[in-house]
Amino acid sequence: MKNVKVNFALAMVVIIVVALTAGLCAAGAAKLGKLTNTTVETLDEERISDDEIDDVEGYGYILRYLGVGVSWLAELILWIVAVVAGIYAVLLFILAMTARLTFSPGRKRLLIYRILMGFEYGLQGILAVTMIDILVDDFSIVLFGIAAALILEMIFSARNTYSDRILE
Predict the structure, then answer these.
(1) Which among 30, 138, 139, 142 has most CB atoms closer than 10 A?
(2) Residue 53 above 80 pLDDT?
C-alpha cells in the first residue's frame, strides 16, 4: 500500500472516531430531551391534579423543576458538542480528501498535498492538545490510549508526508 493511501486511511480513522463521538453526543442529547419532556409532563399532571399544594410539596416541585432545568442544560451542552464535533469531522474529511485527490508526484502538486496535510495535522494536533489538557485535570486510561494513538498516528503520517517516503 502506498504511503499516500496509508496517510488517508489513518486520517479516516481519526475522522470516523470524531464523527462517532458527534453521533453519540447527538443520540444522548435526543434521549435526554425525551426524558426531560416526559418528566415535565409528569410533573405538570401531578401539580394540576393536586387540590392544594403544601409548603413541603411546593418545595419538592421547585427542586424537581430545577432538576429538569439542569437536564435541559445538559441536553443543550450535548447538542453543542455534537454539532462542533460534526463540523470538525467534516472539516477534517474535506482536508484529507482534497489532499488525497490533489496528490501527484509532480513538484507543485506534492507541495499542495503537503500544505493541505499540514492543516490536517494542525487540526488533529488541536484535538490531541485538548485531550492532553483533559488528562492533566482528570486522568483516564481510555483517553490516554486514544491520545497516544492520535499522537503516534500524527507522527507516522507526518513522517510519511514530509519525507521522500511519500513518493514510494
Answers:
(1) 30
(2) no
